[in-house]
Structures are given as C-alpha cells and as structure tokens.
Amino acid sequence: MRIGFSIVLFMFCAAAQASSTLRVGNQVLTAGDSATRVTVLLGKPSYKSRSRGMRQRSGRSRRHRGNRDRAAGEHWQYRRGDHVTTVTIVDGTVTDIEDRRL
Predict the structure, then answer these.
(1) CA 11 to CA 4: how far, in whole Å?
(2) Using CA atoms, how far apart are residues 12 and 21, in angstroms rounded to an integer?
(3) Which CATH code fits 2-101?
C-alpha cells in the first residue's frame, strides 16, 4: 500500500516540476527567467498571443468567462519536433512552461 502511494506521489511531483522547467539541449529554462533568455534558448516563437487577466475582464457577465483559466500575459508557442511548448510571459518574466507531445 505504501509503495503504491509513494509511486503516485512521485508521479504527481514529477508532473508539477514539468510546468516550471524545460530542458533545451544542455541548458534549462525555468520560471523566473527573462523573455530574452527564452529567445536565446528557443528562438523566435512560431505563434504569440496575449490574454487579459481577470481584473481587466470585470465588465463582462458571468456567462462570458472566455479564457479566464489562462494566465494573463503573453503566450509564446514553439514547435519542437513532436512537442508543442507554450511559454507564458508576464512583465518580461517566464511564469509558466507547458510542454505537450503531439
């Protein structure tokens, strides 16, 4: 029973770390790094989008929540082999990294 719980706990911890770090060659990109470092490691993004935070959307009704779950800031998307990496940047600083396999 303890072994099963430990394995599940380990898998959860590994998944949580994956959202704040990304290995790029022999370098590591982490939350807190600058947008300039992202450009140096990953190059120019394939796609950029902006989203507004909840405070800026207060005029909308509750029915039109839109992308409320997405973090405010810019989302830079990169295609890396069979992965799509999305880096969220707020005020010039990396706040989240999402790496998904296609």
Answers:
(1) 11
(2) 15
(3) 3.30.1450
pLDDT tens profile 53-80: 655 444 454 444 444 445 689 999 999 9
Strand partners, 21: 30
Taking the C-alpha atoms of residue 92 and residue 89, their distance in angstroms, rounded to an integer, is: 6
Strand, helix or coil at 37?
helix
Task: Give 73's strand partners.
Answer: 51
| Lookup: tokens for 59 | 């005029």
Q: Residue written as tokens 């990294």?
A: 97
> Distance between CA 71 and CA 26 in Å, rounded?
28
Buried b (16+ CB within 10 A) or exposed e, 68-86: eeeebbbbbebeeeeebbb
Half-sphere exposure of 83 (CA within 13 A, CB side): 13
The pTM assigned to this predicted structure is 0.67
Domain coordinates in residue numbering, the chain: 2-101
